[in-house]
Write a structure and sequence with these properties.
The protein is α/β, with parallel strands linked by helices and 208 residues long. The protein is built from six helices and seven strands, in the order E-H-E-E-E-H-E-E-H-E-H-H-H. 35% of the residues lie in helices and 20% in strands. Helix 2 crosses helix 3.
Protein backbone atom coordinates (compact mmCIF):
# COMPACT_ATOMS: atom_id res chain seq x y z
CA UNK A 1 0.00 0.00 0.00
CA UNK A 2 1.52 3.28 -1.09
CA UNK A 3 1.76 5.96 1.56
CA UNK A 4 0.84 8.82 -0.77
CA UNK A 5 -0.79 9.41 -4.12
CA UNK A 6 1.40 10.04 -7.14
CA UNK A 7 0.60 13.76 -7.24
CA UNK A 8 0.65 14.43 -3.48
CA UNK A 9 2.46 17.70 -2.68
CA UNK A 10 3.21 19.39 0.65
CA UNK A 11 0.74 22.31 0.42
CA UNK A 12 -2.02 23.20 0.13
CA UNK A 13 -4.54 20.40 0.61
CA UNK A 14 -8.19 20.82 -0.36
CA UNK A 15 -10.64 18.99 1.88
CA UNK A 16 -14.06 18.97 0.28
CA UNK A 17 -17.24 17.70 1.96
CA UNK A 18 -20.19 16.70 -0.21
CA UNK A 19 -23.82 17.36 0.61
CA UNK A 20 -26.86 19.43 -0.27
CA UNK A 21 -27.16 23.09 0.79
CA UNK A 22 -29.96 24.46 2.94
CA UNK A 23 -31.60 23.72 6.28
CA UNK A 24 -33.92 21.16 4.70
CA UNK A 25 -31.02 18.78 4.07
CA UNK A 26 -28.67 19.69 6.92
CA UNK A 27 -29.32 16.58 9.03
CA UNK A 28 -29.85 14.08 6.23
CA UNK A 29 -27.61 11.08 5.57
CA UNK A 30 -26.48 12.56 2.24
CA UNK A 31 -24.78 15.40 4.12
CA UNK A 32 -22.27 13.27 6.02
CA UNK A 33 -19.47 14.94 4.02
CA UNK A 34 -20.67 18.33 5.22
CA UNK A 35 -20.63 17.07 8.80
CA UNK A 36 -16.98 16.05 8.41
CA UNK A 37 -15.89 19.46 7.08
CA UNK A 38 -17.98 21.23 9.72
CA UNK A 39 -16.19 19.25 12.44
CA UNK A 40 -12.80 20.18 10.98
CA UNK A 41 -13.85 23.83 10.85
CA UNK A 42 -15.06 23.69 14.46
CA UNK A 43 -11.89 22.11 15.80
CA UNK A 44 -9.57 24.41 13.87
CA UNK A 45 -11.71 27.52 14.50
CA UNK A 46 -11.74 28.18 10.76
CA UNK A 47 -15.08 29.74 9.76
CA UNK A 48 -16.43 28.94 6.32
CA UNK A 49 -17.34 31.93 4.17
CA UNK A 50 -19.39 32.07 1.01
CA UNK A 51 -17.47 32.52 -2.25
CA UNK A 52 -20.17 32.80 -4.89
CA UNK A 53 -17.78 32.64 -7.84
CA UNK A 54 -16.42 29.35 -6.52
CA UNK A 55 -19.88 27.89 -5.85
CA UNK A 56 -18.74 27.01 -2.34
CA UNK A 57 -18.21 28.03 1.24
CA UNK A 58 -14.49 27.89 2.05
CA UNK A 59 -12.14 28.44 4.95
CA UNK A 60 -8.39 28.27 5.54
CA UNK A 61 -7.31 25.98 8.35
CA UNK A 62 -4.03 24.88 9.87
CA UNK A 63 -4.33 21.18 10.68
CA UNK A 64 -1.40 19.31 12.20
CA UNK A 65 1.02 21.83 10.69
CA UNK A 66 -0.49 21.67 7.19
CA UNK A 67 -2.25 24.44 5.32
CA UNK A 68 -5.67 23.15 4.33
CA UNK A 69 -8.59 24.61 2.42
CA UNK A 70 -11.93 23.45 3.77
CA UNK A 71 -14.85 23.62 1.36
CA UNK A 72 -18.54 22.82 1.05
CA UNK A 73 -20.46 23.25 -2.21
CA UNK A 74 -23.36 25.64 -2.52
CA UNK A 75 -24.53 23.56 -5.48
CA UNK A 76 -26.64 20.47 -4.97
CA UNK A 77 -24.97 17.06 -4.74
CA UNK A 78 -25.39 16.16 -8.41
CA UNK A 79 -23.42 19.28 -9.40
CA UNK A 80 -20.58 18.94 -6.89
CA UNK A 81 -18.00 18.96 -9.66
CA UNK A 82 -18.69 22.61 -10.44
CA UNK A 83 -17.52 23.65 -6.98
CA UNK A 84 -14.60 21.21 -6.76
CA UNK A 85 -13.28 22.33 -10.15
CA UNK A 86 -13.69 26.03 -9.34
CA UNK A 87 -12.08 25.85 -5.88
CA UNK A 88 -9.20 23.62 -6.98
CA UNK A 89 -8.48 25.83 -10.00
CA UNK A 90 -8.60 29.05 -7.96
CA UNK A 91 -6.16 27.73 -5.34
CA UNK A 92 -4.14 25.74 -7.89
CA UNK A 93 -4.63 22.44 -6.10
CA UNK A 94 -3.85 19.32 -8.19
CA UNK A 95 -6.24 16.33 -7.97
CA UNK A 96 -3.72 14.37 -5.89
CA UNK A 97 -4.01 17.00 -3.14
CA UNK A 98 -7.79 16.77 -2.91
CA UNK A 99 -9.65 14.79 -0.26
CA UNK A 100 -13.40 14.37 -0.87
CA UNK A 101 -15.58 13.24 2.04
CA UNK A 102 -18.97 11.75 1.21
CA UNK A 103 -21.70 9.36 2.34
CA UNK A 104 -21.31 5.71 1.38
CA UNK A 105 -24.30 3.37 1.07
CA UNK A 106 -22.14 0.24 0.93
CA UNK A 107 -20.63 0.81 4.37
CA UNK A 108 -22.43 0.50 7.69
CA UNK A 109 -22.94 3.53 9.95
CA UNK A 110 -19.88 3.86 12.17
CA UNK A 111 -17.46 2.94 9.37
CA UNK A 112 -15.02 5.28 7.64
CA UNK A 113 -12.73 4.26 4.78
CA UNK A 114 -9.88 6.22 3.20
CA UNK A 115 -8.70 5.44 -0.32
CA UNK A 116 -6.97 6.95 -3.35
CA UNK A 117 -8.48 6.84 -6.86
CA UNK A 118 -10.91 4.18 -8.10
CA UNK A 119 -14.41 4.47 -9.55
CA UNK A 120 -17.34 6.57 -8.43
CA UNK A 121 -19.44 3.57 -7.36
CA UNK A 122 -22.62 5.17 -8.65
CA UNK A 123 -22.36 8.15 -6.29
CA UNK A 124 -23.74 11.12 -8.23
CA UNK A 125 -21.55 13.66 -6.47
CA UNK A 126 -18.39 11.73 -7.29
CA UNK A 127 -19.57 11.11 -10.84
CA UNK A 128 -19.88 14.86 -11.40
CA UNK A 129 -16.44 15.50 -9.89
CA UNK A 130 -14.93 12.93 -12.25
CA UNK A 131 -16.44 14.77 -15.20
CA UNK A 132 -15.37 18.22 -13.95
CA UNK A 133 -11.78 17.28 -13.11
CA UNK A 134 -11.31 14.78 -15.89
CA UNK A 135 -9.70 12.53 -13.30
CA UNK A 136 -10.51 10.19 -10.44
CA UNK A 137 -7.01 10.48 -8.99
CA UNK A 138 -7.93 12.07 -5.68
CA UNK A 139 -8.40 10.87 -2.13
CA UNK A 140 -11.81 9.83 -0.84
CA UNK A 141 -13.13 9.54 2.68
CA UNK A 142 -16.13 7.22 2.58
CA UNK A 143 -18.49 7.66 5.52
CA UNK A 144 -20.86 4.75 5.96
CA UNK A 145 -24.58 5.47 6.16
CA UNK A 146 -25.89 1.97 5.49
CA UNK A 147 -28.23 0.75 2.74
CA UNK A 148 -32.04 0.58 2.91
CA UNK A 149 -31.98 -2.85 1.30
CA UNK A 150 -33.61 -2.15 -2.06
CA UNK A 151 -32.56 0.18 -4.87
CA UNK A 152 -35.96 1.88 -5.03
CA UNK A 153 -35.60 3.11 -1.46
CA UNK A 154 -32.14 4.67 -1.88
CA UNK A 155 -33.23 8.24 -2.73
CA UNK A 156 -35.62 8.67 0.22
CA UNK A 157 -33.05 6.96 2.45
CA UNK A 158 -30.18 9.33 1.69
CA UNK A 159 -32.47 12.38 1.81
CA UNK A 160 -33.89 11.52 5.23
CA UNK A 161 -32.49 11.68 8.74
CA UNK A 162 -30.72 8.70 10.23
CA UNK A 163 -31.98 7.27 13.49
CA UNK A 164 -30.45 8.65 16.67
CA UNK A 165 -28.33 5.49 17.01
CA UNK A 166 -27.14 5.65 13.39
CA UNK A 167 -26.37 9.36 13.68
CA UNK A 168 -24.23 8.69 16.76
CA UNK A 169 -22.32 5.99 14.84
CA UNK A 170 -21.76 8.27 11.83
CA UNK A 171 -20.59 11.10 14.08
CA UNK A 172 -18.25 8.68 15.84
CA UNK A 173 -16.74 7.62 12.52
CA UNK A 174 -16.26 11.28 11.63
CA UNK A 175 -14.43 11.88 14.91
CA UNK A 176 -12.09 8.96 14.16
CA UNK A 177 -11.52 10.24 10.63
CA UNK A 178 -10.65 13.70 11.96
CA UNK A 179 -8.19 12.13 14.38
CA UNK A 180 -6.64 10.03 11.59
CA UNK A 181 -5.82 13.21 9.67
CA UNK A 182 -2.70 13.62 11.79
CA UNK A 183 -1.15 10.68 9.94
CA UNK A 184 -2.67 11.59 6.59
CA UNK A 185 -1.43 15.17 6.65
CA UNK A 186 1.99 14.00 7.77
CA UNK A 187 2.29 11.94 4.58
CA UNK A 188 1.64 8.67 6.43
CA UNK A 189 -1.45 7.85 4.40
CA UNK A 190 -1.02 4.11 4.79
CA UNK A 191 -1.00 4.52 8.56
CA UNK A 192 -4.14 6.65 8.42
CA UNK A 193 -5.87 3.99 6.35
CA UNK A 194 -4.77 1.22 8.69
CA UNK A 195 -5.94 3.18 11.71
CA UNK A 196 -9.37 3.91 10.28
CA UNK A 197 -9.96 0.44 8.89
CA UNK A 198 -8.87 -1.26 12.11
CA UNK A 199 -11.14 0.95 14.21
CA UNK A 200 -14.13 0.63 11.87
CA UNK A 201 -17.41 -0.23 13.57
CA UNK A 202 -20.25 -2.25 12.12
CA UNK A 203 -18.56 -3.41 8.88
CA UNK A 204 -17.68 -7.10 9.33
CA UNK A 205 -17.20 -7.65 5.63
CA UNK A 206 -14.29 -5.22 5.36
CA UNK A 207 -13.68 -2.68 2.62
CA UNK A 208 -15.95 -2.75 -0.42
Amino acid sequence: MADIGQDFRPDPLLIFGLGNPGDRYAETRHNAGFWFVDELARRSEAPLRLQKKLHAETGMASLHGRECILARPTTFMNHSGRAVQAVSAYYRVPPGNILVAYDELDLSPGTARLKFDGGHGGHNGLRDIFQALGSGDFYRLRLGIGHPGVKEAVTPWVLSRATAEQTALIRGAIDRAVDALADFLGGRVGEAMKRLHTEAVGDPEGET
